[in-house]
Write a structure and sequence with these properties.
Elements: E1 3-7, H1 14-19, E2 27-31, E3 34-38, H2 44-50, E4 60-63, H3 68-71, H4 74-81, E5 91-94, H5 96-99, H6 111-115, E6 119-122, E7 128-131, E8 134-140, E9 149-155, E10 158-162, H7 170-174, E11 179-188, E12 198-199, H8 200-210, E13 214-218, H9 222-227, H10 229-240, E14 243-246, E15 251-255, E16 259-263
Parallel strand pairs: 3-4, 4-5, 5-6, 10-11, 11-12, 11-13, 13-14
Antiparallel strand pairs: 1-2, 1-15, 2-3, 7-8, 8-9, 9-10, 15-16
Helix pairs in contact: 8-10
The chain binds zinc ion (2 copies).
Length: about 280
């Protein structure tokens, strides 16, 4: 039993990604002994190596949308999930652009990689998925990839929501009311709103509307990283009275009766898992 998120990456946006100021490897979720990788962007593989996570254990992959900070390592993750491409297994979920392509966007997972998993599902807002026994609701987003979505993960101890890249509106925020934990992609700091993303001011309004137990800033762009994400999160906590923190790479959140934060154990040097030939 249990629900654990390891933040393989906490960066987002073009400059954080291209310079790897922070890793952009997405989130590894363990739920009741199953492993789900959400948005394996650049850095996912090296971070899994650092924590000695053998990606042949991954059961499912979700890619929210067709921007490289969310998908670039996904094909290698699929090769891991399928034991090097030799065993048909695992489920792959993605938006229209990710799996089918739409106009100038995508697809960003090759036909070959879509062909080696057990199932491929295109999702859209309003869908309810059963991901290895966990209910996942698909929510609307307002982003430059128009097929992007957000997620509500139903755990035994409440709803954990991952609001993927989006502009703010009350309608977007209201979908997450009832969440216990809110993972917010705060790309820019206060006073620095950019199109199709959240800044700290938007985060404040978002948190006021949803009022979860814990808010975690992720998808940090270079400007908010320079400004100091801890201070930005603190300003939201002060204004709302709701516990708000900025994530750091390889932070771990355990969702049980209590919410526990820790850091993944890391290792240096060469490592070849036993599952390897
Ligand atoms: Zn992004
Ligand atoms: Zn994006």
């Amino acid at each position: 039993m249990g629900f654990r998120i390891t933040f393989l990456g906490t960066g987002g946006g073009r400059h954080t990604t291209m310079y790897q100021v922070r890793s952009t490897g997405g989130m590894l979720i363990e739920h009741d002994g199953r492993f789900l990788h959400v948005d394996p962007g650049p850095g996912a593989l090296t971070q899994m190596h650092r924590i000695r996570y053998d990606l042949t254990r991954t059961d499912s992959v979700i890619v929210s949308h067709c921007h490289p900070d969310h998908y670039s390592d996904a094909e290698s993750v699929i090769e891991g999930m399928t034991r090097g491409g030799w065993t048909r297994r695992g489920s792959l979920y993605g938006s229209q652009t990710v799996l089918r392509g739409n106009g100038r966007l995508g697809p960003c997972i090759s036909d070959y990689h879509q062909g080696i998993v057990s199932s491929v599902s295109v999702f859209e807002p309003g869908d309810v998925l059963d991901v290895d026994g966990m209910r996942v609701d698909i929510c609307r987003a307002d982003h430059s990839d128009p097929t992007n979505v957000g997620f509500r993960f139903h755990t035994a101890d409440g709803i954990v929501s991952y609001v993927s890249d989006t502009a703010y509106s009350d309608e977007i925020a209201d979908q997450y009311i009832g969440s216990r934990v809110l993972l917010l992609p705060v790309t820019t700091p206060t006073g620095n709103r950019i199109k199709y993303h959240l800044c700290t001011d938007d985060a404040l309004t978002f948190v006021e509307r949803v009022r979860p137990e814990l808010v975690i800033f992720i998808h940090l762009g270079v400007v908010i990283i320079r400004r100091g994400p801890d201070k930005e999160a603190e300003s939201v906590e002060r204004a709302t009275g709701i516990r708000t923190i900025a994530a750091h790479d390889l932070m771990v959140l355990d969702v049980g009766r209590e919410l526990k934060l820790s850091d993944a154990k890391t290792f240096e040097g060469e490592w070849i898992p036993d599952s390897s030939p």
